[in-house]
Amino acid sequence: MKYLAVLLGAIAAAAALPTDISDPVLMKLSGDGERFQPMRGGNGVVHMVDTWLKVSDLMEAARFQPELHNTYHLFTRNNPIVSQPLLLGEDGLLGSTNYNSNRRTIFIVHGWTDDLLGNVNSVLIPAFLAAEDVNVISVDWSVGAGTINYLAAVTNTVTSGESVANFINWLMASTGTTPEQIHIIGHSLGGHQSGIVGRNLNGKAAYITALDPALPGWLTNEHRFQANDGAYTEVIHTNAGLLGYIANMGQVDFYPNGGINMPGCSDPVCDHARCYQYFAESITTGGFTGTRCATYVGAMTGNCILWGSLQMGGLRPKTGSSGIYYLQTNDAAPFSRG
Question: Which residue stretches of the chain have pLDDT < 50?
Fold first, then answer.
């Protein structure tokens, strides 16, 4: 994989540095911001993480081999609770599962220190299966995401995304599934990874949703989520400027309640989780009408007077839509105000 080759090259170059430099810094991924920043793990714990990429981070990341370590778990209405494993290149195993190429296929990518059993999957999988007869594939990249070394996990986000794209290409070739049937969703680090997956599918995936993509380590990171990563890309910001990325990133960006301090929440961890709770509600009951804003600063202050509105989230891509939108929510479910 091309990123792994660059990574190993950086390690080799760093190894040639003077031996009196024990752990040289290779890149400041925080830009001009603070070196140590808070970041929420999948278990809800917030850690102060180092956003300066060091040789030791790359050495740890190099031990992650996503082609071997990533696992893929299929859920359908025929098996909504217990997953069926899928293995890259194993056509025979795929043929024995409930995968149906006539359905849309949803990929869910978790975030840092999270895994298959985390809240993102427990909220989104049942919501999708209740709303539509789809294939839901949960990507478990916890071997790469589970390290407490956040910068290693950031690096692993990229290589994992490339591997997930390889898996999707195999799945499409084996089943006749088309990019128009693919929806990729990621939370936090997984938000950026969803874009990396789409980018490695040449931007052809029909729908990509980034749920409060992470801020620490991504401010100057060239691999961060981009608007052209899919045919339609949407970002939902719920802890902008702290755990989540602050600026607009997709073709469409929503800033519920200004993108920070969600009603009913008292801390950034709760805010960071609201994005997938809102999204789950959007695919089951709709609602969440956003008002168009001129800038993300306007969205964060609620100063939005442009003509036009758009529904946040939902089952289907709003292809051709663009812009930045503001809306308000209730402090508990149902969150939508319509």
Answer: 2-20
**pLDDT tens-digit profile of 18-34?**
333 577 776 666 566 67
The DSSP element (H or E) to which 67 belongs, if any, is helix 66-69
Q: Is the dihedral of CA 177, 183, 187, 192 positive or negative?
A: positive
Q: What is the CATH number of domain 2-327?
A: 3.40.50.1820
188 three-class SS: coil
pTM of this prediction? 0.86
Active site residues: 188, 212, 272
> Other CB atoms closer than 10 Å to residue 54's CB: what's the count?
19
Measured over the CA atoms of residue 268, residue 143, residue 159 and residue 73, the dihedral's sign is: negative
Give the dihedral of Cα atoms 65, 164, 214, 272; nearest 10 deg. -110
Strands (E), the chain: 25-28, 36-40, 46-50, 52-54, 71-76, 79-86, 105-109, 135-140, 182-187, 207-211, 233-236, 252-256, 289-293, 309-311, 323-327
- Determine the distance from the C-alpha atom of residue 11 to the mean position of all C-alpha atoms in its chain, rounded to a whole number: 27
Domain residue extents for the chain: 2-327
What is the three-state SS of 203-247?
CCCCEEEEECCECCCCCCCCCCCCHHHCCCEEEECCCECCCECCC
DSSP result, 289-338 = EEEEESSHHHHHHT----S-EEE-S-SS--TT--EEEEE-B-SSSS-B--
d(CA 94, CA 86): 6
